[in-house]
Amino acid sequence: LLLGCELTASTKSYTFQVDEEDNSDHILALSMVCLTDGAKDECNVVEVVGRNHENQEIAVPVANLKLSCQPLLSLDNFKLQPPVTFRLAAGSGPVHLAGWHRIMHREDVSFEEDDDLSEEDEEDLPPIMPAKKK
User: Compositional bias (Acidic residues) spans (predicted)?
Assistant: First the structure.
């Protein structure tokens, strides 16, 4: 699924979240961030806001765009795990974000572990031979 959103002076953030009861794995990949028509020649800083392993909110800047020197940034499918918020931390935009969302359905697969490796199975392996000297 394709993802796209625009951050502006009036809409400074966009949150991507999935249904908490959904039993699938979700990957969100950010491919490109760019300034669009109407952008001023100012620094536009885009942050990704998520949660760390201690469930604390963290914000990481991923792009600093300026019309005259870097209006576009390719993020090479920067992968994130929802929920995630994209926030325009500085500037007035408009900044367009593009990427994709992949849903991987979990399958109920039972793995049978074979802990009963007998000595007979080990004896079937060929013995390790020393290297021949020339």
Answer: 111-125
The set of residues, in sequence order, having a beta carbon less than 8 Å from that of 102 and lying 6+ positions away, is 1, 26, 27, 29
- Structural domain contains residue 119: no
pLDDT score of 114: 46
Q: Is residue 124 part of a domain?
A: no
Amino acid at 118: S
User: CA–CA separation, 63 vs 13, rounded Å?
Assistant: 14
Task: Provide the domain limits for residue 26.
Answer: 2-104
- Over residues 15-24, the mean pLDDT reads 75
Question: Is 118 or 59 the better-scoring residue by pLDDT?
Answer: 59
pTM: 0.70
